[in-house]
Amino acid sequence: MDLDSARQELEEFIPHVKNISDSSIKKMAGRDLMRFKEFKKQGIAVKFGRFTQKENKQIQKNVEEFLSLTGIDSAEKLLFTSRYPEDKDTIHRLKTEHHFCEKISQGIPRPWRLIYYRARKMFDPNNYKGRYTKEEKEKLKKYQALHGNDWKKISELMSRSNLSVAMKFSEIKSAINYGPWTKEETQKLMNAVKEVMRRKLQTENPSSLSSHEQSNTDPWIDREKLYQQLPWTEIETKVGSRYWRQCKQKWNSILTSKLTKGQQLYRGTNGLQAKINLIKRLYETKAEDASEVNWDELSNAIGDVPRTYVQAKFYRLKVSSVPLWKRKTFSEIIDYLYEKKLPELEEKL
């Protein structure tokens, strides 16, 4: 299958497929497309967002069955093969022979890559070592001074995961400001986000960048859907005085403000229509729990806004409309909104 055809077929299952790189599209066409079609036949939609407890159990089951099938003696060897150079060739051969990609993703309607990353997080023994001691923090600072941001190297030296050492270093390094953001810091953050998003746009679609440069709009606001994939540790370095989590929270705050400024999303008839769309879309998901909802996709129901904005609007809707909502399950709240509140809103509209 050629690249354009693969992208077109995948678009049915992944709304943001146009923002995915060509190399990732090729991999998804081989690993995911047939799976997605099978799930569609069963009436099951492809999911994103937080993994449910049921999905975590399925991943655990898949990994355990693959270990039993191949004789590989640990999940760490299976998922972190580079840590075992003496067994690497044998493990790679077994993974190929026994179709590792298909087996690990069995029964889970998500892109293979996300399932694989989730499995690595679940089975990495270096992820669950508790708080860093004072000695570990000093070691981390020393290793970073020696090796820079080579987190893979540092993680091996400290027996912690890559993500753990990178994030911990962000939090303990000097010159971190915990007070209100200054105008200078905010501008640095916006410039950093703009720079990395321009680079991302240019990598994925060179023609899109030139068209944005000719327009009067800010491409990083137009392409808000990319905010979750931003390299926050890189942005943190560019800002210089805040760690990555602060940068992400501040950016989401700026983004919400910019995207909603001047838009009459929740006023008059637009506001009524937005609430109606949100209730209908939530009802259609048939989700039993909030963690099963793809909030990014739902944002399309009311406009080009971040998921946090949609979640905040849903919270206000249930608090103001659903009696004793704290005693109800998520699905009961949605049913109430659909059966009682929706007709009222439609009549008002």
Low-confidence stretches: 208-227
| Rg from Cα | 23 Å
Structural classification: mainly alpha
Beginning-to-end CA distance, first to last residue: 47 Å
Helical amount among residues, as a percent range? 55-70%
Biggest pleated-sheet summary: none
Number of helices: 20
Molecular shape = globular
Proportion of beta-strand residues: under 5%
Order of helices and strands: HHHHHHHHHHHHHHHHHHHH
In total, the number of domains comes to: 4
Whole-number average pLDDT? 80
Give a count of the beta strands, DSSP E runs of length 2 or more: 0
Could you give the topology of this structure?
Layout: H1 3-11, H2 22-31, H3 33-41, H4 53-70, H5 75-79, H6 88-97, H7 100-104, H8 112-123, H9 134-147, H10 151-158, H11 162-172, H12 183-204, H13 206-214, H14 219-222, H15 232-239, H16 244-260, H17 268-285, H18 295-298, H19 307-321, H20 330-348
GO biological process, one term: termination of RNA polymerase I transcription
GO molecular function, one term: chromatin binding
InterPro entries: Homeodomain-like_sf (IPR009057), Myb_dom (IPR017930), SANT/Myb (IPR001005), TTF1-like (IPR053078)
Description:
With 349 residues, the protein is mostly helical. The chain folds into four domains: 3-123, no CATH class; 134-173, Arc Repressor Mutant, subunit A (Orthogonal Bundle), CATH 1.10.10; 183-204 and 220-260; 268-347. It is 65% helix and 0% strand. The chain has 20 helices and no strands. The protein is globular and about 70 Å long.
